[in-house]
Amino acid sequence: MLAAGLLLGGCGGGGGDKAAPTSEAPSSGLANFDVCTVLSPEELRGFGVDPDNKRDADQGLGDVGCKYMGDPFVLGLSKAEGDDLASWERKRSNFDRLEPNSVAGREGLVGITKGSTGKGICRQILAAGGGSVTVQVTYTDPDTGSTSDPCADATRVAELVAPKLP
Fold first, then answer.
1. Which domain of life, per UniProt (predicted)?
2. Is residue 157 within 8 Å of 78, Cβ to Cβ?
3. Of 18, 32, 62, 68, which sees the most CB atoms within 10 A?
C-alpha cells in the first residue's frame, strides 16, 4: 500500500494542463455500449418482442440492461463489464447447463441457470469488450419450454447481436 502511494505521489508534479487519468480501463470496451439499442425495432419485432414495451433489467449486480416483453418470449439483453467468460465459468455451480460455444465467430457460453431446465429459460453469453453481453430468452408460457428450445432462440438472437459488439 505504501509503495502504491509513493508511486502515485510521483505522478502529480508540474504541468497542471495534463488530463488526470480516468478509472476506465482500456479493456472496458463496454463502458459506452448501450446493449438496449443493439437491436433495431425491426429486428426486435422479428423475434416477436415489442420494442415499445421495454423494462429496465438492472439488478444492481454489476450488469445493466433491459427486457423486451413479447410473445412467444421475453427477451433480456444485458452487459457486465466485470464478468468475462472466465468469470461465468467460475459460476458454473449456478447453472444446470453451461457449455462453451461460438456465435458469429465470437466466443460464448450457452447456459440454463440451476432449477430452470425445462422451464423455457436460457441465456447466451458472449465475450465482448473485456466483459460479456448476455441474451436471455424466457418463454411467456412456461409450457412452451417443454416443446421448444429456448437456447436455440437465445442463440438465434445472439447471431444478430454478436457482430455489433465491441
1. Bacteria
2. no
3. 68
Nearest-angstrom CA–CA distance, 47 and 93: 30
The residue ranges of every structural domain in the chain are: 46-164
pLDDT at 62: 59
What is the spatial distance between Cα 30 and Cα 113, in angstroms, rounded to a whole number? 24
Residue 57 is predicted with a pLDDT of: 73
Separation of alpha carbons 101 and 105, rounded Å: 10
Which of 78, 76, 74, 43 has the alpha carbon at shortest distance from 60? 78
> Do residues 74 and 142 lie in contact, with contact meaning Cβ atoms separated by under 8 Å?
no
What CA–CA distances, in Å, run from 72 to 43, 46, 145?
15, 11, 10
Beta bridge partners of 73: 139
Q: Which residues of the chain have pLDDT under 70?
A: 1-28, 58-62, 145-146
What is the CATH architecture assignment of 46-164?
Answer: 3-Layer(aba) Sandwich (3.40)
Q: What is the pLDDT of residues 128-156, one digit of tens each?
A: 999 999 999 999 887 776 678 999 999 99
Contact 109, 89 (CB under 8 A): yes
Contact in structure between 128 and 165 (CB atoms under 8 Å): yes
Give me 104's grid cell: 458469429
